[in-house]
Design brief:
With 328 residues, the chain is of the alpha+beta class. The chain has helices at residues 3-10, 18-25, 29-37, 65-75, 91-97, 152-165, 230-234, 243-264, 270-276; strands at residues 47-49, 53-55, 79-88, 106-115, 134-142, 172-175, 179-182, 185-197, 201-210, 283-286, 292-298, 304-308, 313-316, 323-325. Strand 10 and strand 11 (292-298) form a beta hairpin. It binds biotin (BTN).
């Protein structure tokens, strides 16, 4: 018995008896009971009441594969293959490992309800409980030299913030190179991975993790930094905003941003970066070194500029190092 049909039935948040579930899914009550007892995916609470049935309090906001494919068919720039999973190790790993190359002009998108080994930057684990947040990766071919890659993760960050703003959230910022922050807490992150060479071009995988519903609880205990989600930071329910709507808006903004990036490179995004810059004027330390300085901003290739205490300037490249705000 597959878990997805069971979750789709319980997604409405109402009680369903074992008999009703069995009838709907064409299995015995015992199979339903066994499946439920084997444990639901990480992050799903199940309320079981004897004589009443089963329910997931608050319901589930599941990704709608059909609707997403439908939207992509008329909104994606060119040919797109959408891969959706209930559970996967990592959407980035899937696109990096399972496809040896990405044909020019074809974009692969992978989204999952949950990741069992979500990857963060600098080898960290990305907490990815079932159905609570967005975990999506986009793979595409990029030709040309390495300089075209340097501003890429920054502009994807801009696209993600613009998508969030489209739903009325404000105060969302970008912590260089690509952490999404709101009120000093991390709302999401971007992981860019690539393989290839200047001669053959690159297979680029851009992974976005955006916390949507996640609240303090067992699953989020493992996160070792201050974090938030749209629901927590917005102090409100999402109402009729679904994860599907956020995902589609995110993809739309990313497609448009990548198209503009092709034309202008990062220099065409400098003003928008300055509007969203979380670190501007803050004192930061370059991780793994004893260097620190005040953030002056970014330069036209996306590198971070610092003014050090000795008066000298320091340029830090994304991908090489990270920085930590000293007053975090
Ligand atoms: C960060 O550390 O800030 C980057 C987090 C990136 C997480 C996303 S979730 C979708 C994609 N798949 C992964 O395994 N990681 C990225």
């Amino acid at each position: 018995m597959q878990i997805r049909p069971l979750l789709e039935l319980l997604a409405d948040g109402n009680f369903h008896s074992g008999q009703e579930i069995g009838e709907c899914l064409g299995v015995s009550r015992t199979s339903v009971w066994k499946m439920v007892n084997a444990g639901l995916p990480l992050g799903i609470d199940l309320d079981v009441q004897k004589g009443v049935g089963y329910r997931i309090p608050g319901g589930l906001d599941l990704l709608d594969e059909e609707a997403i494919n439908h939207w992509l068919a008329s909104n994606a720039p060119g040919k797109v293959c959408y891969h959706q999973f209930n559970e996967i190790e990592s959407t980035n790993a899937y696109l990096m490992d399972s496809m040896h190359s990405v044909d020019e002009g074809v974009v692969h998108i992978c989204a999952a309800e949950m990741q069992t080994d979500g990857r963060g930057r600098r080898g960290k684990v990305w907490c990815s409980p079932f159905g609570q947040n967005l975990y999506v990766s986009i793979a595409f071919h990029l030709s040309g030299g390495g300089e075209r890659l340097s501003g890429l993760s920054l502009v994807v960050g801009i696209a993600v913030v613009q998508a969030i703003e489209a739903f009325g959230f404000s105060g969302v910022k970008l912590k260089w190179p690509n952490d999404i922050y709101v009120h000093d807490e991390k709302l999401g992150g971007i992981l860019v991975e690539l393989t290839g060479s200047p001669a053959d071009g690159w297979k680029v995988v851009v992974g976005v993790g955006l916390n949507v519903y996640m609240k303090d609880g067992e699953v989020s205990k493992s996160i070792d930094q201050r974090w938030t989600s749209l629901v927590v930071s917005g102090g409100r329910d999402l109402g009729n905003i679904s994860r599907n709507a956020v995902l589609l808006c995110l993809l739309d903004c990313i497609f448009k941003t990548l198209a503009q990036y092709e034309l202008s490179g990062f220099s065409g995004f400098m003003d928008e970066w300055h509007r969203l810059d979380y670190l501007q004027g803050k004192v930061v330390q370059v991780l793994g070194t004893d260097k620190s300085g005040v953030v002056l901003g970014v330069q036209s290739d996306g590198a971070l500029r610092l003014r050090m205490s000795n008066g000298g300037n320091l340029v830090v490249n994304a991908g090489e190092v990270s920085v930590r705000a000293l007053l975090d």
